[in-house]
Every structure is written in C-alpha cells, then in structure tokens.
Amino acid sequence: MGRRLKLFAPRPLLDYLSDADADPSLETIPPLPPLLSTPEILRLIIQHLNAPALSALACCRPGLMAPVSRQLYKTLDSKQLEKLANRFLTYAPAPDPGANARVDRFRQLYAHHIQHLHIMTHSTRNSDAPISIWKQLQRLMLIWPTEALFPNLRSLTCTADEPEHVETMLKLLVASLEELNITGSSLSIGSEQD
C-alpha cells in the first residue's frame, strides 16, 4: 500500500502527453492518471514544458491541479512562466456557440491564466512585462469572445506610457471570475502571490 511507484509511474503520463500531442482538443483529453503524485507530475511538466504537458495539467482534476500549479509558480523562472502562459493560451478551446459545457471549461482554464499573469506582474523585474502581459491577454481575446464573459475588458487599454492599467485590469478580471461561481474549480483565483 505504501510502496512508491518509481519504475512505471512516469510512463503513463509520457504516453498520455504523446497522445495529447496528436490530438490537442481539450474536450477529448482524459484526466491525468491518478497513480502519479504531485512531485512526479511537477517534475515531468518542468522537464517537458510544452503544450501537451500543459494541456494535461489543464485537464486534470482541480484537487491535483492546485498544488501542482502553486509549485510551478514557485519553481519556474519568469521566462518559463511566460512560456507557461503562452502554452496555456495556445490550448484554450476554440469558440463553439451554444456549447455551455465548453464555456464552463473555458472559464475554469481562464482563471488559471489570470492567476498566473497576476503573479507574474508582481514577480518580474522587467519594465516591459506589463506590455507583454497585455499582449498575451489580447491574444486570448482573439481566441475567445471574452467580452461576453468579462465585460470589464471593453473599457481597458494599455500603452507603453500607462502600464499600470494592466494591474487594474487583472484585479477587475479576477473580481469577475469570483462572481462567476466557476463550476468544477477549487483553485483560489484571488491575488495569491505564493
């Protein structure tokens, strides 16, 4: 009962990542294998910081995603964190009008983007970071009609002269997410910086 699964525990996730690479659709990816512990998942994601690995993380059950996400934020440097955000954005579901289940999945995934971006604004020393973050959010808006879910986006802009608008925007978005009562997500989406 208390034996560690050292020899074969990583293999299912590697096979799983290979399958995810062939079919990147978030709707068809099953949950992560339950036999993997948080440290094993963390190690494999850091070693394979690619879109399939992050899609696997995005689709695992919230109870597993929360500790892994927190450790990723503590472990990765700012460049890796930016890559993390970009990869998540790449694998956001495509618009599908009338499919409420996909909207719920998008809201859950979007909460993690916002949590990551909010943390990154406070952890980087790069003066261009707010502009970079704003561009990432603009890209997300192109992937999905976010104004319908988050009307605060309509009135917010960010230029090189006004990077402070990004922090305001993130606070407003996080507030909107809290009001949405996201189904199936147990992650804190507030302004945690750990």
Topology (elements, then pairings):
Blueprint (H helix, E strand, L loop, with lengths): L9 H13 L15 H10 L3 H9 L2 H14 L2 H13 L9 H24 L5 H15 L20 H17 L14
Helix pairs in contact: 1-3, 2-4, 3-5, 5-6, 6-8
Protein name: F-box domain-containing protein
Kindly summarize this structure in a few lines.
This is F-box domain-containing protein. The chain is about 60% helix and about 0% strand. The chain has eight helices and no strands.
C-alpha geometry: globular
Order of helices and strands: HHHHHHHH
Tell me which oligomeric state these chains represent: single chain
Estimate the helix proportion, in percent: 55-70%
* Largest β sheet strand count, sense and barrel closure: none
Calculate the terminal CA-CA distance, rounded to whole Å: 33 Å
Number of helices: 8
| Strand element count | 0
Q: Give the low-confidence spans.
A: 1-35, 91-96, 179-194
Secondary structure class reads: mainly alpha
| Overall tally of structural domains | 2
Rg, alpha carbons: 17 Å
Strand content: under 5%
